[in-house]
TrEMBL record:
Coiled coil start-end: none
Single GO term (MF): succinate-semialdehyde dehydrogenase (NAD+) activity
Superkingdom to which the source organism belongs: Bacteria
InterPro entries according to UniProt: Ald_DH/histidinol_DH, Ald_DH_C, Ald_DH_CS_CYS, Ald_DH_N, Aldehyde_DH_dom, Aldehyde_DH_Superfamily, Succ_semiAld_DH
Protein name: Succinate-semialdehyde dehydrogenase / glutarate-semialdehyde dehydrogenase
Keywords: Oxidoreductase
Family membership: Belongs to the aldehyde dehydrogenase family.
NCBIfam families recorded: SSADH (TIGR01780)
SUPFAM superfamilies, per the entry: ALDH-like
Family matches, as PANTHER family: SUCCINATE-SEMIALDEHYDE DEHYDROGENASE, MITOCHONDRIAL (PTHR43353:SF5)
One Pfam family in the UniProt entry: Aldedh
Residues covered by the Aldehyde dehydrogenase domain: 12-479
Biological process annotations from GO: gamma-aminobutyric acid catabolic process
């Protein structure tokens, strides 16, 4: 069982209250670790450490910071199996998925370290002969990273790696359900040579208290958050009081459109990988599946058949494709959406119920839900209006390209969208008309470290990944010099 404190100023310490909380395996209900339960006073200590470490860290050369991040990347890869196992134990996703996430998380560290050496300024022609105009990029200062439970590694490195590359220092608040992965990653960064105070970690069950403390402190100049739109709006309001820079990667309700000219087998496979990865607990997974009428029945039958073949179970077991949902509330939400759809006329082609698996302890109810395919869904059903965050694939038919685009865009979210077609002209038309920050054309898994990740509308602000992610942690300074 893993046991961690708070990581502040290069040391593992107890919370000021000496309180701790337990971390449980959602597949079994077993306790797999415990962590210090930090509060407002601990946040203040972490911010102070980061604030005091900022001058020296930001003064290091880009090459020096890049070398440390390179070592952190190599350590994450060397410990990929260990990190993957920790993640599966506390989060539940299948072990192969967990190890894949560690690679993805490490990619952000590698890319950001390399990008540190490509943070360029600019010289602008002046309007007078005795002046020179320079544009200089410099780090914003202390940055806070508030991360969710569904991707315990990559949502951290996607924030702290560009921050560190830019010269910022950081305070991390991971989700209380999955703090162990974060703790081990911080250990590896420290081992890689990150100086004391540059990375600080607050684990806590008091999310609102910690969040408010980070947002109200004027020494924190940047906040990166991944989570629900509702919480994102609260943080945005709080950030306004000190005019912090803020990046918000919020909810999604991704459409997946399949046109009649698509490669049907490939489209089915991509829906499977998009929808059921992490048991549907991803902000970019296919949530609304729109299929052209003429191929609708064939598509639905193939998807239902392949969905039936997905093995559900403990993520540590061989061949498991669908792990547990994170907790009973998550399973309740999925169950409620399926019941709502069925009551309003949807047909269950496969699944539709909580899984019969239970935890190891007598009376312990695990949080599995059968991978589900629904047909004959309508816009009035909750599953088509709100993010599911579970293994449910609702299918609706459409008759024209215009109808498909209208249905896809009819959402307050605009994070990711996907569509399948073999028609090049349609690919260009539809990709330009979809109101989403990420569009996968014949690609159900477009996320990569070097590309911008973020959404339109209520799916957030700013971008993470590639040079765009680093820019979020930089200020632009205009310097005008008179030379005579």
């Amino acid at each position: 069982m893993k046991r961690y404190g708070l990581f502040i100023n290069g040391k593992w310490i107890e919370a000021t209250t000496d309180e701790r909380f337990e971390v449980t395996n959602p597949a079994t209900g077993e306790i797999v670790g415990n962590c210090a339960d930090g509060g407002e006073a601990d946040v203040e200590r972490a911010i102070t450490a980061a604030h005091e470490a900022f001058p020296a860290w930001s003064n290091q050369t880009a090459k020096e910071r890049a070398e440390i991040l390179r070592r952190a990347y190599e350590l994450m890869i060397a410990h990929k199996d260990e990190l993957g196992e920790i993640m599966t134990l506390e989060q539940g996703k299948p072990i192969l998925e967990a190890k894949g996430e560690i690679q993805y998380a490490a990619d952000f560290v590698e890319w950001s370290g390399e990008e540190a050496k490509r943070i360029y300024g600019e010289t602008i022609p002046a309007s007078a002969t005795d002046k020179r105009i320079w544009v200089h990029k410099q780090p914003v200062g202390v940055a806070a990273a508030i991360t969710p439970w569904n991707f315990p590694a990559s949502m951290i490195t996607r924030k702290i790696a560009p921050a560190l590359a830019a010269g910022c220092t950081v305070v991390i608040k991971p989700a209380q359900q999955t703090p162990l992965t974060a703790c081990r990653i911080v250990e590896l960064f420290h081992e890689a040579g990150v100086p004391k105070g540059v990375i600080n970690l607050i684990t806590s069950t008091h999310a609102s208290t910690v969040g408010e403390a980070l947002l109200k402190d004027e020494r924190v100049r940047k906040v990166g958050f991944t989570g629900s739109t509702a919480i994102g709006k609260v943080l945005m309001k709080q950030a306004a009081d000190t005019m912090k820079k803020i990046s918000l990667e919020l909810g999604g309700h991704a459409p997946f459109i399949v046109f009649a000219d698509a490669d049907l087998d490939r489209a089915v496979d991509e829906v499977l990988s998009s929808k059921f990865r992490n048991a549907g607990q991803t902000c970019v997974c296919a949530n609304r599946i729109y299929v052209e009428q003429s191929i609708g029945q064939a598509f639905a039958e193939r998807l239902a058949q392949k969905t039936k073949e997905l093995k559900v179970g403990n993520g540590m077991e061989e061949g498991v494709a669908i792990g547990p949902l994170i907790d009973s509330a998550a399973a309740d939400k999925v169950e409620g959406q399926v019941k709502d759809a069925v009551n309003k006329g949807a047909k269950v082609m496969t699944g539709g119920h909580r899984h019969t698996k239970v935890g190891k302890h007598p009376g312990q109810k695990a949080h599995f839900f059968e991978p589900t395919v629904l047909l004959d869904v309508t816009d009035e059903m909750e599953v088509m209006r709100e993010e599911t965050f579970g293994p449910v694939a609702p299918i609706q038919y459409f008759s024209s390209e215009e109808e498909a685009i209208a249905k896809a865009n009819h959402s307050r979210y605009g994070l990711a969208a996907y569509f399948y077609t073999e028609n090049l002209a349609r690919a260009i038309r539809v990709s330009e008309k979809l109101e989403f920050g990420i569009v996968g054309v014949n690609d159900g898994t477009p996320s990569t470290a070097q590309a911008p990740f973020g959404g339109f509308k209520e799916s957030g602000l700013g971008r993470e990944g590639g040079k765009y992610g680093v820019e979020e942690y930089l200020e632009t300074k205009y310097i005008s010099v008179r030379i005579q």
